[in-house]
Structures are given as C-alpha cells and as structure tokens.
C-alpha cells in the first residue's frame, strides 16, 4: 500500500513506550504518541 508509513526508531526496541520498563525510550515514545494522535485527529475527527 503506497499510503503506509513505516518508521523505525534507532535504539528503540520492543515496548519502547512502556515507561515502567528498562526499554523505555522517551524521545521515540513522545514522537510516536504525537504521530498517533495526529493521525487520529486527521482521519477520525467527527
């Protein structure tokens, strides 16, 4: 699908958004969250 965007965060492994785990990566988590919310606002806004 040409509309798919895949983003890899170097140095961020599995569960990088889980702030209670050693694998937490704040920069990747913040960017991923902002991108997710931005996508929701763009495509799911009522």
Task: Tell me about this structure.
- The structure is a single chain.
- With about 45 residues, the protein is mostly helical.
- It has a domain at about 15-45.
- The chain is about 40% helix and about 0% strand.
- It contains 1 helix and no strands.
- The radius of gyration is 13 Å and the shape is flat.
- The mean pLDDT is about 95.
Q: What would a concise description of this structure say?
A:
The protein is an all-alpha fold and 46 residues long. It is 39% helix and 0% strand. The longest helix is centred in the last third of the chain and has 18 residues.
Number of helices: 1
Classify the helix fraction into a percent range. 25-40%
Query: What is the percentage of strand-forming residues?
Result: under 5%
User: Termini separation (Å)?
Assistant: 25 Å
Uncertain stretches = none
Number of strands: 0
Radius of gyration: 13 Å
Mean pLDDT figure: 93
Please summarize the sheet with the most strands. Answer: none
SSE sequence, one letter per element: H
Shape: flat
Descriptive labels:
46 residues, mainly alpha
How is the secondary structure organized here?
Elements (H helix, E strand, L loop, with lengths): L25 H18 L3
